[in-house]
Amino acid sequence: MENTILQRFRLYIKIKEYTIKSYSEEIDSPEGTINNMFSRGTNPSTELLVKILKHNPKFSLSWLLVGVGEMEIEETQIIGKNALAASNALLRLSDELNKKHEKKVPKTTQELINKITELSAELAIEKEKNRALEEKNKNSYLQVAEPTLKYGK
Predict the structure, then answer these.
(1) Cα 95 to Cα 104: distance, rounded to the nearest angstrom
(2) Considering the domain boundaries, does residue 148 fall inside one?
(3) pTM above 0.70?
(4) Were both Cys, which of 7, 27, 28, 131 would link to 55 (CB 3.0–4.6 Å)?
């Protein structure tokens, strides 16, 4: 398992069969940004994270930032998409505040990690609720789908 954000980011690029140059072009980011990040051992900036999500909305920030869950979120994970949408909304709101007030609102990696951890916990709770509802619906369906057979004379 990859232990750092940078290691997980490298793994993502490798698995998707990108070069640094091709991935930079794909997400419309200067190649030097990603090269410098790797050579210096620094984490991706918030701006780069936003570009990654815009390019691939199924990319899991939970996986990248804290190593939780899968690399990509499956489309059937509706709750997961809602958590991702909430993260995106927070990033957009922060960007709007930056523009509106012409000053930087702090968006450190740690703040993002804290929010992703919080959303991951909420996601786990909602998944369990969803699983319980699916089981209940399955049982209800089975009761309706299997009518009692009555034998005639």
Answers:
(1) 9
(2) no
(3) no
(4) 27
- 31 vs 47: CA distance, rounded Å: 14
At 54, list the tokens: 């815009």
How far are the Cα atoms of 23, 37, 49 from residue 32, in angstroms, in the given order?
A: 12, 8, 16
Q: Each residue of 73-125: pLDDT tens digit?
A: 876 554 555 666 667 767 776 666 666 655 544 567 767 777 777 778 888 88
> Which residues, other chains included, contact 34 with Cβ-Cβ below 8 Å and sequence gap of 6+?
20, 23, 24, 48
Written in H, E and C, the secondary structure of 63-108 is HHHHCCCCCECCCCCHHHHHHHHHHHHHHHHHHHHHHHHCCCCCCC
Assess if residue 44 is contained within a domain.
Answer: yes
- 153 found inside a domain: no
User: How many domains, in total, are found in the chain?
Assistant: 1
DSSP summary character for residue 58: T
Q: Give the amino acid at 25.
A: E
